[in-house]
Write a structure and sequence with these properties.
The protein is α/β, with parallel strands linked by helices. The chain has one domain: Aldolase class I (TIM Barrel), CATH 3.20.20.70. It is 31% helix and 22% strand. Bound molecules: methionine (MET).
């Protein structure tokens, strides 16, 4: 069985972002990423500051039950970029056998065949403020494969820090007009320890993003969200 580097397993908590926002879920956060986003809120998955535990699918499932007991029926796999780990295939299989729903978060830069079996796939291409470059051909392939899955959901989620990011998101939206589109306010203060301080600031940013999109017909079919977990718990890890 191929092993998976795991940074954290936590929950039950709520999914704070994207298409399944509010969903009660467990999280499995994998280590390693092909990207280095300037504003990454999980840089500990790739910057060497925290060490991954290398685990096989069976021990990840065991850990999920140890932490979540009978209090979950949904698991979210995030990173890092989970798509770089072929071992996730067996994890998905084991979870499906247990009747557990699965979701994944990835930037859409590396295709993994196990994406086909995930109930909710969130593709989160990175805008200019991240300093990453989108490989459009790879993204085309992703969207094409995901669109052809019966009875499973996917969406695009783009983190927005400024107007240039919003133009990038518009380009993505035009390229994939049938993909449900979520815009998410970027967290530009990853060092604030006080959840209350951050909350006020991020709600202001959320208002800014709403005002930018309301008078623009390109955004007539979009969902605009804050990061709920950041509003609730600030920059705290493992919630
Ligand atoms: N790499 C994935 C993404 O970009 C998940 C990590 S985001 C903290 O969506």
């Amino acid at each position: 069985m191929k092993k998976i580097p795991v940074l954290e397993i936590f929950g039950p908590t709520i999914q704070g972002e994207g298409m399944v926002i509010g969903q009660k879920t467990m999280f499995v956060r994998t280590g390693g990423c092909d990207y280095r986003c300037s504003w990454c809120d999980s840089a500990f998955t790739w910057d060497g500051s925290q060490k991954a535990a290398v685990m096989d699918a069976a021990s990840i499932v065991e850990k999920l039950y140890e932490k979540g007991t009978n209090l979950f029926s949904h698991v979210t796999i995030s990173g890092g970029n989970p798509a770089i780990h072929p071992g996730i295939h067996s994890l998905i299989e084991e979870l499906r056998n247990q009747g557990i729903q699965t979701a994944v978060e990835t930037q859409g830069s590396i295709w993994a065949e196990w994406m086909i079996d995930i109930d909710e796939v969130t593709i989160s291409p990175k805008p200019p403020s991240s300093l990453m470059k989108t490989d459009w051909e790879k993204l085309d392939y992703y969207i094409n494969r995901l669109e052809r899955r019966p009875n499973k959901a996917f969406s695009l989620k783009i983190v927005i820090f400024n107007k240039e990011d919003l133009e990038y998101a518009a380009e993505v939206h035009t390229r994939y007009p049938n993909a449900p589109m979520f815009l998410q306010v970027g967290n530009d203060d990853l060092t604030e320890k006080e959840a209350g301080m951050l909350r006020d600031h991020l709600l202001e940013r959320y208002e800014w993003l709403i005002s930018e999109t309301m008078d623009d017909a390109r955004w007539n079919d979009v969902k605009i969200l804050p990061q709920l977990h950041t509003l609730l718990w600030g920059n705290k890890q493992g919630v």
